[in-house]
Design brief:
Blueprint lengths: L5 E5 L3 H13 L4 E5 L3 H10 L4 E2 L3 H5 L4 E4 L6 H8 L8 E4 L5 H7 L8 E2 L2 E4 L19 E4 L7 H13 L3 E4 L2 H29 L6 H4 L3 H10 L3 H10 L1 H23 L3 H20 L14
């Protein structure tokens, strides 16, 4: 049973184009409408045939849609919500794919008419690539999609969004928005912040080491550069919109880093080994849970 008959996707980068591809492949009877502010993206989406209709504005895309998905950087959500509000149909659902959820509720909910329903969503999936060519229909297969409906959201609206994400291969969990933000701050946001910092430090050292940082980059540094290659606009907005949870996790990380620093200074091999063994166990658990593979490329080739 189709969760929605007409879906509008606003923003057709990696996640938006992947959702379009997945819906096209798994729910072929759903009408897809797309909108993107970048003319180059619009041209490429038309060439790829990812949607049925490319609308000239966000409001035009939302008109007649049963579901509107915001797939642009988080900083644009309030403006988009204001633009689409007059065009929303009775019982239309507005959702998103952003990585911070309380900020979505605060930015979008006040803009929506009473007859529309907000069901924020976060598909925990992605790559460091961006743009419509980077998307692929299996991106969400076997991944989590976390829904964070605000209190009072009609259960049917939540259920319809759940069915959509399940249809494209995701496993769905419903969670409080603030709790989501805290969890993702440590599992996603802080790792990206660390990666940006390490790669930035290496960049500063590059002239000192006469290109040896890049020439002799080991696997660990290469993995950091992959993460740090992620879209800068998107991640700027993530850190600004989830600042409280990120700062809380950053303080905890700084304390743990200081403990490792002391262990190295004092030659405390037992502490180092205990921490490294625990970290290794986490990696193995992630692989066993099916959220990654043990392949040298970490399963990210396709």
């Amino acid at each position: 049973m189709m969760p929605f008959r007409r879906i509008a996707i606003l923003g057709l980068g990696l996640i938006g184009s992947s959702l379009a591809r997945a819906v096209r492949a798994r729910l072929p009877d759903v009408a897809l409408v797309g909108f993107d502010r970048d003319p180059a993206v619009v041209t490429r989406v038309a060439e790829l045939g990812l949607v049925d209709i490319l609308s000239p504005s966000a409001a035009a895309a939302a008109r007649g849609a049963e579901l509107v998905v915001l797939a642009t950087p988080l900083g644009t959500f309030a403006e988009l919500a204001q633009a689409i509000a007059p065009a929303l149909e009775p019982d239309a659902v507005v959702s998103d794919v952003g990585s911070a959820k309380q900020a979505v509720i605060e930015a979008v909910a006040p803009c929506l008419p009473a007859h529309a329903h907000l069901v924020p969503a976060h598909p925990v999936a992605g790559t460091e690539q961006s743009g419509p060519d980077a998307g692929f229909e299996d991106l969400f297969q076997g991944r989590w999609a976390i829904l964070t409906p605000p209190p009072g959201t009609p259960p049917m609206a939540v259920e319809r969004v759940r069915r959509l994400w399940e249809a494209v291969g995701a496993t769905v969990e419903v969670m409080d928005a603030r709790h989501h933000d805290l969890v993702l701050a440590i599992t996603s946001h802080l790792p990206h912040l660390i990666a940006y910092s390490i790669v930035g430090t290496a960049s500063d050292l590059e002239s000192v080491t006469k290109a040896e940082v890049i020439k002799y980059s080991a696997g660990g540094f290469r993995d950091f550069t992959r993460i740090a290659a992620s879209d800068p606009t998107m991640w700027r907005d993530v850190f600004l919109m989830n600042r409280e949870a990120v700062l809380e996790m950053l303080a905890r990380f700084s304390e743990d880093l200081a403990a490792l620093q002391r262990a190295i200074r004092w030659g405390d091999g037992e502490t180092l080994f205990r921490r490294f063994a625990a970290s290794r166990a986490i990696r193995r658990a992630i692989v066993e849970a099916g959220q990654d593979t043990a392949a040298p490329d970490f399963g990210r080739r396709r």
